[in-house]
Amino acid sequence: MEHKDIVYALSILLTVALGIWNLIVNLGNTRRSNFINTVTSQRVKWIEQLRQDISAFTGLAHTLTTANVAGKPEELEMLREIDRLQRVIRLRLNPSGKQDQRMEQLIQQIPRMTDPSNRQQLTAVLEEVIVTGRRLLKDEWDKVKLEAEYGNLNG
């Protein structure tokens, strides 16, 4: 074998090795990118669903105290839906998140305040739920933006 044959053989082996290395790196990057995209899209869905649930929950609680439904079938239906939404919201919250913990404390108070005599108290708590919800949703949206921009899921 001549010297040039050895150089060609080494060049071919190096090209194959670089091709395999490039394939492995690209597969890893694709898998990571797909994972991040999935987590990010699920977080966006979670944000929207939580927004809808908080909105429905606070709206129903407010309507229950302002509408004249006491003793009517609509009252029981509203109370059932408030109870369901309260539990759904609690299940969506992060038990170790500061805003989440505050939200949980607030939404647990609301069903006890739905009597029309507690209207002022309820209005104040509902406003705090909305403010806390806005902060929580904003924090989550910021995490989504970081995930999308930098691929960092630790946010």
What does the model show?
The chain is mainly α and 155 residues long. The protein is built from four helices and no strands. The chain has a single domain, classed as Four Helix Bundle (Hemerythrin (Met), subunit A). Helix content is 83%, strand content 0%. Helix 1 runs antiparallel to helix 2 and helix 3 (98-109) packs antiparallel against helix 4 (119-150). The protein is rod-shaped.
Task: Give me the secondary-structure topology.
Layout: H1 3-66, H2 73-92, H3 98-109, H4 119-150
Helix pairs in contact: 1-2, 1-4, 3-4
How is the CATH topology named? Four Helix Bundle (Hemerythrin (Met), subunit A)
Overall pLDDT metric: 90
Please estimate the helix content.
over 70%
| SSE pattern | HHHH
Strand content: under 5%
By secondary-structure content and strand pairing, the structural class works out as: mainly alpha
**Termini separation:** 58 Å
Evaluate the radius of gyration.
27 Å
Strand element count = 0
What is the count of helical runs? 4
Which architecture name does CATH use? Up-down Bundle
Reading off the top of the CATH hierarchy, the class is best stated as Mainly Alpha
Biggest β-sheet strands, sense, barrel: none
The low-confidence parts are none
How many domains is the backbone divided into? Answer: 1
Shape: rod-shaped
